[in-house]
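Exercise: predict the structure of this protein bound to zinc ion.
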Amino acid sequence: MILDLREFETFPARALLQSRPGELEIEFNGLMAVKNAGLELKIQKSGEEYFCQGVVTALATLECSRCLEDFDTVLTGSTDFIVCAEGCHNKDGDVIDDEDYAYFKGADLRADLTELARQAIILAVGMKPLCSEECRGICSQCGVNLNDETCNCSNKLDDERREDLKNLSGQ
Ligand SMILES: [Zn+2]
Ligand SMILES: [Zn+2]
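Solution:
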């Protein structure tokens, strides 16, 4: 996902970048595939730096952390960063702060934003993707998908727990 700053004559400017097929191969727990992604940008120029506010939207296939079934969803995440010439903030020997940067080289005002988009998508996946808030998951005893089927394990388990508690409390 390449941002070409020569396309803009005035700022603030808006841009929409689309990922090319296969450009956003991401290895992340629960993320099975990213079909396509768009990065919407609001760009403000200040001196030699371009301040970008970005919103990533990605059509993705995730694996539910409860039932382990794949499901399609739209991920959205925001990413703010600064685009500048390579080494622009190292002139004074400044330590780089927490800001994210993307760089272009010399007179070529093209910056690759793929990595920033990738990070925003990973953040949007979160730690525990769910096919639905109400997902019942799979039975830890017999392994059936409790969204599709029911089983009797939970009753049995409850009985055992009650037994254990009784034993613990010495009744
Ligand atoms: Zn699920
Ligand atoms: Zn079961």
